[in-house]
Amino acid sequence: MDIDRYAKWAATIQVGRPPIQDDIKLLSYLCIGLASEAGELGGLVKKLLRDGEWNAEQAADELGDVAYYFARLCAALGKNPSELLDQSVAKIEARIKGATSN
């Protein structure tokens, strides 16, 4: 699925009971959700380092949750995820170019 289409779909899902209507509360919830899911993925890597155990399916599941919160945050900011990805590519390429020209 296209990331912009996914973000539009994800933005239709109500959060909370009753649904969170306040923009600041929704933004806060989404940021905490992103950090939490990224932390769960990090926890799997920690277990890999500590115990040598790796569950790729569980990691993929957590990465999907990260993608959901990323997409929701993009929608909350009024941005298409593809725009942010393009900006990220440009920023990283500029850093690489700057590092190689020194």
Please provide a written account of the structure.
The protein has 102 residues and is mainly α. It has one domain (3-9, 18-100): MazG-like (Helix Hairpins), CATH 1.10.287. Helices cover 76% and strands 0% of the residues. Helix 1 (3-10) crosses helix 3 (56-76) and helix 2 packs antiparallel against helix 3 (56-76). The mean pLDDT is 94.
Question: What's the structural blueprint in terms of helices and strands?
Answer:
Elements: H1 3-10, H2 23-51, H3 56-76, H4 81-100
Helix pairs in contact: 1-3, 2-3
Briefly say what this structure is.
The chain has helices at residues 3-10, 23-51, 56-76, 81-100.
* CATH class value: Mainly Alpha
Low-confidence stretches: none
Beta-strand segment tally: 0
Number of helices in the DSSP assignment: 4
Largest sheet: none
Helix/strand-derived category reads: mainly alpha
Average pLDDT reading: 94
Estimated radius of gyration: 17 Å
Total number of domains = 1
CATH superfamily heading: MazG-like
Q: Quick one: overall form?
A: globular
The proportion of residues in beta strands is: under 5%
Give the ordered list of helices and strands. Answer: HHHH
CATH topology assignment: Helix Hairpins
Give me the CATH architecture, please: Orthogonal Bundle
Quote the distance from N terminus to C terminus.
40 Å
* Helix share, percent: over 70%
